[in-house]
Amino acid sequence: MAQDARDTGATGTTGQRSVMVNGYDGSAAPGLSPAERELIARRERVLGRPYRLFYREPVHAVRASGAHLFDASGADFLDAYNNVPAVGHSNSRVQAAVSEQLGTLNTHTRYLTDGVVDYAERLTDLFPAPLTQAIFACTGSEAVDLALRIARRVTGGEGIIITRNAYHGTTTAAAAISPSLGSGNPIPDTVALVDAPDSVRGPGGAAAVTEFAAQISAAIAGFAARGIPFAGMIVDSVLSSDGLRLAPLGFLARAAELVRAAGGLYIADEVQPGFGRTGSWWGFGRQGLVPDLAVLGKPMGNGMPISAVIGSPELFDRFGAEVRYFNTFGGNPVSIAAANAVLDEIEQRELLTHAGAVGDALAAGIRGIAAGSERIAEVRGAGLFLGVEYTHEGGVPDPAAALAVVNGLRERRILVSASGTLENVLKIRPPLVFDTADAERFLTGFAEVTRELG
């Protein structure tokens, strides 16, 4: 029997979740103009129900710069959520690189071109051995799909372990390991769900590592008992959809040891934590591990269509010996130009250091404000990826409070969202160019909303 997103976890939690927290439902949006209501009606008519909008009152953006969006009236919205334009909206270096390359050459990947080789060498130099090769695709979902194919081919297995509220993409294969897509998204028997460490309601320290490891062992044993050969485990290195679960350090390294001992591969999904988001190049490094495969996505091209799977020659050779894989435009010259410009921006503007420093200051400010609120159980994060968890008395999750803060900040033209297995964690994830003035503006708005919430 297939599992779905309502499956009971080790924590005993149950219940159907909405398809998307913080989604516009059309029932209450008093600030929308007639023109915006008509645009939404046209959008729904031509794009259909799967396309969702954020916020009780959607944002109608017409231009953007750095960490800011602007509507038709010129009103400035502080973007504290969008990680795709990693080096800032409308980045001039990326824009110039794309424009120049588009006017020179943009063709498929079966021709010999210099740029993709140069970039692959530069990118893989940022990874520890033996991760020295890259396969490019166009989207993170495609890269996840490919990583699963590689893992299953080289191990001969099918069983994959994921976290309970994981999100890894929207292809058929990626959706099958993405329970956060909702209760209508079935999870097959070849996928096992484990609960992320819960620093608010669960044990901490070594006990949390032991508890998580026990779940991995049980999942592997469960596959064996059902006659499903084991292929591996894929985890977002900061468990963002599970509510940004970063502690205790080392729990993923222990999981990787168990996975490999059972003949599986460990896949690090770096689409969200990668490229400096946590103050270091890759999220897996914080956990003290080197994955067998790493998956990269949208931020690597600042929104241009490019993604990658990073792996070892051994794995790629074993896969490529039996499978003909190519991606017509994965790693095309224009997307590669954008990706190179992103690395230039990160390195020359020292955005790793910047993300760490501004993120630390932002986290300290949020903790100071949270100290006066009984609704905030914990502030956690790394670099410019922060989570604020809302609970009732006794640690009972309070998703209504998280959503109220999301919309309260929206009213002040500050954009964030909420996530987590229990939908009660404020998710703060701005472009890496988010600066001190942006952080101060965020903290002012957050303090006001926190006082109003009580």
Descriptive report:
This protein has 454 residues and is of the alpha/beta class. The protein folds into two domains: 34-87 and 350-453, Aspartate Aminotransferase, domain 1; 92-348, 3-Layer(aba) Sandwich (Aspartate Aminotransferase, domain 2). It contains twelve helices and 15 strands. The chain has helices at 34-47, 92-102, 114-124, 140-155, 172-175, 205-225, 251-261, 313-320, 333-348, 351-370, 399-411, 436-453, and strands at 61-65, 68-71, 76-79, 133-137, 159-163, 191-194, 230-236, 265-269, 293-296, 307-311, 376-382, 385-390, 414-415, 417-419, 425-428. The strands form three sheets. A seven-stranded mixed β-sheet has the order 4-10-9-8-7-5-6, with helices on both faces. The chain has a four-stranded mixed β-sheet with strand order 1-2-3-13. The chain has a four-stranded antiparallel β-sheet with strand order 11-12-15-14, with helices on one face. Helix 6 (205-225) runs parallel beside helix 7 (251-261). The relative contact order is 0.16. The model is unreliable at 1-19 (pLDDT under 50). Keywords: Aminotransferase, Pyridoxal phosphate, Transferase.
